[in-house]
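Dissemination and training. As part of the outreach component of the grant, students in the summer workshop were shown how a complex can be specified as a set of sequence lines and then modelled as a single object. The example used during the hands-on session is reproduced here so that future cohorts can follow it. Participants entered these lines:
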Amino acid sequence: DGGITQSPKYLFRKEGQNVTLSCEQNLNHDAMYWYRQDPGQGLRLIYYSQIVNDFQKGDIAEGYSVSREKKESFPLTVTSAQKNPTAFYLCASKQPGQENTEAFFGQGTRLTVV
Amino acid sequence: GENVEQHPSTLSVQEGDSAVIKCTYSDSASNYFPWYKQELGKRPQLIIDIRSNVGEKKDQRIAVTLNKTAKHFSLHITETQPEDSAVYFCAASIGGTSYGKLTFGQGTILTVHP
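and obtained this result:
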């Protein structure tokens, strides 16, 4: 089912807690991305990684952290420094190149602060 | 960085009518323009894309046009059906192994009334 899996589907976080969202792909893609989706604001880029052990901040990286220790995995940690973390989080992967290629998305994780 | 503006934010049509969604981009180096459809609670899925070396591309009832000079591109859906109701996102990307980062528009909620 698209080869990219996010877990969990729903996640609840208490104030002051860090939580980690999982993203795994078996498409052998080099590039992986994390987006945040809020109503009326489209998809905003949090972090992206073009290769193992390397990642770059996106447009809204504050309060988030990532790691890329393996090609197939790109977990996102939402830290207590993120003041408004309630949102729908989408992970994507693609194979970058001159011709550009389709980005495949996971099914998303809905994070709610309680 | 790249900035993508998408209009309208909502679009309501009668079944059988056509729907047009427009996007503009800011970075003249962008050369890949995909369109994604997202049904409620689901992952975005690619419906059509266009590269900068062509001006128009069609796939059955869906077409995309690109004007590089004006830096805008549009999605055209003809003979709309209720199952076309969804959120549509445009995006822009610069090709090459160092890039490939997708910047999304804000999204258009399309409602097709039977």
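Chain B is about 0% helix and 55% strand. Students were then asked to discuss how this feature might be tested experimentally.
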